[in-house]
Design brief:
alpha+beta, 196 residues, disordered C terminus, five-stranded antiparallel sheet, 5 strands
């Protein structure tokens, strides 16, 4: 007997039909869509990683600028005012936070002022004049808060007042802002009655 004759259907490669669940032993052109989807996903991931790196570089650059501004401009002005207050019977202190703390999440520089003697205990916005500069990495500016309340005197202000561009924060601007805070503090009717 000879070799059994195979039908044409038996000689063709097996092709899976969706309803049967059988695998295809040949290439199905419809699967090229999977390749395109995966290539698009890879490209989106690459673009997202590039964008995230650019944002991280921008945040890092801004934080470095803020630190430089504090060291070269704001802090020297704060120190000059405290030194002058001390020579006139007052006082003050500077608080610096690098950020990432529970209470202070972003870098911050604060100067607390006393109109009579050194600050005793922990300074408070309702008892001590202050100027506070916070780095706002999202907005790429400096949030400015200040207070002109002394020893619980009435009529003062405490809280956020403005946002400054980092390039606009200079020794002169901080110095003049602190002088204005001291002036407003002494204009409250009861400010001279409260020693802290």
């Amino acid at each position: 007997m000879g070799t059994p004759h195979l039908s044409e259907a038996a000689q063709e490669p097996e092709v899976a039909l969706p309803a049967t669940g059988r695998r295809s032993s040949g290439a199905d052109p419809r699967l090229e869509e999977v390749d395109r989807i995966m290539a698009d996903l890879g490209e989106r991931d690459r673009r997202s990683a590039v964008a995230a790196a650019a944002v991280a570089d921008g945040v890092h650059g801004f934080m470095a600028e803020f630190e430089t501004m504090c060291r070269r401009e704001a802090r020297p002005a704060m120190e000059a005012v405290i030194e002058r207050l001390k020579s006139d019977g007052g006082g003050g202190l500077i608080e610096e936070h690098v950020g990432g703390e529970t209470r202070v999440s972003t870098p911050r520089l604060t100067v607390w002022l006393s109109l009579q003697g050194d600050i005793q205990g922990t300074p408070r916005p309702d008892r001590h004049p202050y100027l506070q500069l916070d780095a706002d990495a999202k907005e790429r500016n400096v949030r400015v808060s200040e207070g002109d309340m002394w020893g619980g005197s009435e009529g003062g202000h405490s809280g956020r007042i403005d946002s400054w561009e980092i390039a606009d924060v200079s020794y002169d601007r901080v110095l003049l802002e602190l002088i204005a805070i001291i002036r407003r503090t002494t204009q409250h009717p009861s400010s001279h009655l409260h020693a802290v």
